[in-house]
Amino acid sequence: MSSADGTYDVVVLGAGSTGENVADTVVRGGLSAVLVEEHLVGGECSYYACMPSKALIRGTEALDEVRAVSGAAAAVTGELDVTATLERRDTFAHHWDDSDQVAWVEGAGIDLLRGTARLDGERSVVVTGPDGGGTRLTARHAVAVCTGSEAMVPPVAGLADVRPWTPREATGAKTPPRSLVVLGGGYVGCELSFAWHALGSRVTLVQRMPRLLPEAEPQASDAVLASLRDRGVDVRLDVDVTAARRDGDEVVLTAADQEVRGEEVLLATGRRARTTGIGVETVGLEPGEYLDVDDTLQVRGVPWLYGVGDVNGRQLLTHMGKYQARQAGAAIVARARGEEVRAGDWSPHTATADHAATPSVVFTDPQVASVGLTSAQARDAGLPHRVVEYPIGSVAGAELFADGYEGTAVAVVDPEREVLLGVTFVGPAVAELLHAATVAVVGEVPIGRLWHAVPAYPTVSEVWLRLLETWRG
């Protein structure tokens, strides 16, 4: 499928998981594709985000699970091995070597070009290689921008000058810092606070807003806050940092009435689109902005250009980027064949789950697993809804899983159509409950039919039955 003259059906900027999936989907559909990547093939998730961060967390999570079971707890006689944990993290990041990913790309029939890509007018991309040489690529059908997002430095005086960590540095650190200040209480800030505290750092989490995980159900925010504080993390809410400076080997952050110090400071305050320096201005778009796309991920006003994954700002999650990639790839193939691209809910060509059925997991202890709308989102959208809540620890399977299991299940139900709008689980190991909820939300399975989805006894999934009983009253 390679092209001697630099012409391909599809040119993909960025060989992270999103770009890989766009290219794979169009190649499977009979088109030719080339990936352009200046760094590591596999992208952020493989080397700096999902995989290495969860590897940092998993050992502590496993120990907590064993210590919560009488009898098994007696077998735990030592503490977490920090060196072994970091070594295991390195294996999941493939020691920052992308040769396995490159082999997969080649085996899938996708070409790979190393270098920095810039759009240069309609369906044209110029790539500057590592040696400084240039290559022009032309797309017959589509250019897909899959350049992702990057950590944002908030406008705090002096902050950029203190050499703060981004999540890249935080997941790849070779040793735990003596002390770490985490700015931001979203899922990245909470997860990495949990991880580095368990690995021996003294952690202070500073959140500008009045609660952690502000997009989650309040029950989730409260549970994660309580757990972090119980473990010894210093969590400070409603604190607006106004200045930063270096004082010897420490970073000093200043707020109106307090000062926070740490050997390192981690920015977990949000992300921005990687659209600067890639030539979007040559096709009439604004550098630095998220790409405005329709549900087929086609950039509005530029029909041959697609913005897929984090770069469009719809859902900044790896699995949603891969989902968008499959949908966009299918739409590109259909258009290339002259076939109808179907719009509307749950079409093979549209990413409608972005709006109504996005699943996510916060890998703290307790975990927070959610899909669809929260009660606040349903209220803000003006949707009829009723909230149903049940303590997961009252289910027999949870009692077996851990002594004193604490957790909560929250369902947001449309009482008129009697379907689920959203579900949130809070508790140990609840991530594995999430896909059933996702299927129920995506399928708009009627409550009356869910009664016939019988959970096995004794499993934690029996919480589904208890939610339905609570709904019925």
UniProtKB/TrEMBL annotation:
GO terms for biological process: 2-oxoglutarate metabolic process. GO terms for molecular function: dihydrolipoyl dehydrogenase (NADH) activity; flavin adenine dinucleotide binding. Binds 1 FAD per subunit. FAD binds at residues 54, 147-149, 310. Keywords: FAD, Flavoprotein, NAD, Nucleotide-binding. The keyword Transcription regulation does not apply. This is Dihydrolipoamide dehydrogenase.
